[in-house]
């Protein structure tokens, strides 16, 4: 069994694509995802240090799309802000800083309830996509702060690696490739699938249906299996079931 039916998520790999502005590459997806009913977005800027500047950038973008935006860091009561929210957007930055702030403000359970029980739309970009998943074990970020746990919101029962980068056969860099790092994760027992979302890709989740959107595709890593390549339009609904290591 997956989560209850109303779950609606738009999990974006990255907020800015080369040659475009903030959320420019996915603004049509954002508009169709949020629709006409949502009037205001609750923005969670905890992944960046300068929350005021971050909120200003996000507000300008969402206002240009026809939505008001309130930043949670301006609220005297973040829990109450989540409880009253119509839609939630968590932006990118450092995933460890973001998750620690969600724990520090006692927001994980509140966001889970709003999204999984009440059915409000959740949008994440980069770090905001990482925290929507099972855990932040497959983030690309440095652990600059120490959250009480690496377990995240768990709005989906698998992990995502945003900004997924394919190995460059011509590179002289001797560090691990992204694929090798994900393989190291899967060497540990009971680790869930990891969806490598390239920049320009996003995952739309509606209830128990998950669809790959965007332009660049994704690479799927299942523990003990060879990675597989997937084009935009791929149905990833099987990842939403608890026994998600098996393809349909």
From TrEMBL:
It comes from the Eukaryota. Residues 226-248 are annotated as: Disordered. It catalyses: Dipeptidase E catalyzes the hydrolysis of dipeptides Asp-|-Xaa. It does not act on peptides with N-terminal Glu, Asn or Gln, nor does it cleave isoaspartyl peptides. Its EC number is 3.4.13.21. Its main location: cytoplasm. It is found in: Cytoplasm. Keywords: Cytoplasm, Dipeptidase, Hydrolase, Protease, Serine protease. One of its GO terms (biological process) is proteolysis. It is an enzyme of class 3 (hydrolase). One of its GO terms (molecular function) is dipeptidase activity. GO terms for cellular component: cytoplasm. Hydrolyzes dipeptides containing N-terminal aspartate residues. PANTHER family: ALPHA-ASPARTYL DIPEPTIDASE, PROTEASE S51 ALPHA-ASPARTYL DIPEPTIDASE. Belongs to the peptidase S51 family. This is dipeptidase E. It comes from Chelydra serpentina (Snapping turtle). The lineage of its organism: Eukaryota, Metazoa, Chordata, Craniata, Vertebrata.
